Amino acid sequence: MINLVYNEMLKIVRKKRLFIISAIIAVLVGLFTYAQYKHVQDVQKRLGTTDWRTQLQQQIIDTQNRLNSSGISEEWRKFLKIRLQQQQYYLDHNINPSAPGAPTFMRMFVENSIELFLPLMVMVVVADLVSSEASGGTMKLLLTRPVKRWKILLSKYIAMGVSISFIMLALVVLSYAISGAVFGYGGWNLPLLTGFTVQGEELNTANVHLIPQWKYLLIELGLASFVAIVVGTLTFMLSVIMRSTAAVMGIMLAALISGAILSNMVSSWESAKYLFMVNLRLTDYISGAAPPIAGMTLGFSIGVLAVWGLVALIVSFFVFITRDVY
Amino acid sequence: MTDTLVVQNLRKTIGKKEIIKGLSFSLREGEVFGFLGPNGAGKTTTIRMLVGLIKPTSGRVSICGYDLQRQFADAIRHVGCIVENPELYPYLSGWENLEHFARMLPSFSKERLQEVVHLVGLQHRIHDRVRTYSLGMRQRLGIAQALLGQPKVLILDEPTNGLDPVGIREMREFIRLLAEKEKLSVLVSSHLLSEIQLMCDRVAIMAKGEIIRIDDVETLLKEQARVYWKVDSLERAKNILANETTVLETDGMLVTGYEASQLAVWNEKLVQAGIRVSEIQPKLPTLEDLFIELTGGETID
């Protein structure tokens, strides 16, 4: 089995796929770092002062005043207290909230790439994993070895897992290294708010609490990896079914893009929540953004994605084992 | 001689159409077995069933005693094959391709790799990318990968396809060598009749998914041998010969069957009738003639 996985990794590496992906990530991170840098400069110019401490102190005083005023709900009071804690931390530790360090940049990058960019990178590797063997004719050689078909497919699936790990690692390392050069490498312990839940129309802040940024990042990276594996499995299934890599790419792209569009307009079409592509923004549940359709929760989305992934995996193996190769 | 590959009543139905209609044959150790038929006769489908790429609807394939369906790994271990074109990974070198396929075997050694590379004579270019190979070199690399696992049965689909005359000749000699020296059973498919005639011991003639006939190439040819007569008076000669045997007329010559004991008698009769005989030419038929005869005039290509 190790030999088979080695073979598959050799093919992926020699096709220079992982290199291309690293290059794309590096370029994009560079672009976003510059954009962020410009944005920070802009904010500072608009505030008229480069001293963000006075700004933050003013905000803290505002929050304190609101806390002291009567007639606010107990829940809201609690939330404000946590906000106050966060702002105080920024001040005490000399952190400029509008000019964050590399970990913060990385977190934003992960949050923004989970829906489209990360799946796209996964597709670059996975789309032709099986279909290229079929269209290149090497499938015939592969399947006439003294190895059972399921083992061959499993080795490809494991190679996909290894590649996704590599992509995640490249994402982390490159975004940290490149953005850190501009924003500095600190900020791992920055406290962040999480625990928001949406109930009906309202944002429930009852469970909101602070966690350090590194924990927050770990959670987000875990969720992003899960999304990457599910999208990878779906692409894998299409790659098994179809001989044409272009068709695999086309279908997956259409699905992902339609997901991004649907998320913005399906709030009244409730059953759309069972589609995998509107469930990709798992990190939104952590940061507290409203889900596209009422009633969607982190658990629900993970469940939907897991079912899609599992079905795709079963279909892939069934088709691959029973199919006649012409 | 022992049978290495045995096929019993092999059938394949796609939809309602029966593509392969109950094939049975076996390969002996050390022989080259030809699979002859026009395009679309079902040669490639049959070969794909023999190597497990297509599941037969019914029937049985056994290789060195192992059932291909139930003991796939054990059975296929004894088979080396090239199905259609030798398609390898173009972005890897020849050596890496061989290593890739060797890693899929239960065990392999660097020495065996060297050995097959030398056997097919690729040692000078083996570390170049396959992308840069000519078709002939790819064909050789294809054979090298087929021989990696020291198979008992070698299955080659159209092995001389796209090769130049020198390449074709080399391939032919190589295949004969493998059968005679290494005692491999080689199954070769072709739609080129001259090919089969030159390199096979036995041949199966296929058309429309059926085997029309299996026999030694020698026997088949001898049976269908012809004698060509060149005479000065066609009409009269034809009448005389027609009394003895069946006569055909082609290109100003008369054609009769080959009957060694009768030739002198027939000639004598012609001469006695005052007909001048300038040529008596026995000819072995090409398999092409044979094919047309067996299939009732169906064209080859």
Automatic annotation (TrEMBL), chain A:
Pfam families in alphabetical order: ABC2_membrane_2
Keywords: Membrane, Transmembrane, Transmembrane helix
Molecular function via GO: ABC-type transporter activity
Segments traversing the membrane: 18-37, 116-136, 157-183, 216-241, 248-269, 289-321
One GO cellular component term noted in the UniProt record for this chain: plasma membrane
Listed PANTHER family: BACITRACIN TRANSPORT PERMEASE PROTEIN BCRB, INTEGRAL MEMBRANE PROTEIN-RELATED
Protein name: ABC-2 type transport system permease protein
Organism: Anoxybacteroides voinovskiense
TrEMBL record, chain B:
Keyword ATP-binding recorded: yes
Chain ranges of the ABC transporter domain: 5-233
A Gene Ontology molecular function term of the record: ATP binding
Pfam family, one: ABC_tran
Key words of the record: ATP-binding, Nucleotide-binding, Transport
Origin: domain of life: Bacteria
Database matches in InterPro entries: AAA+_ATPase, ABC_transporter-like_ATP-bd, ABC_transporter-like_CS, P-loop_NTPase
The keyword Nucleotide-binding belongs to this UniProt entry's keyword annotation: yes
UniProt record similarity statement: Belongs to the ABC transporter superfamily.
Name this protein carries in UniProt: ABC-2 type transport system ATP-binding protein
Originating organism: Anoxybacteroides voinovskiense
Lineage of the species this protein comes from: Bacteria, Bacillati, Bacillota, Bacilli, Bacillales
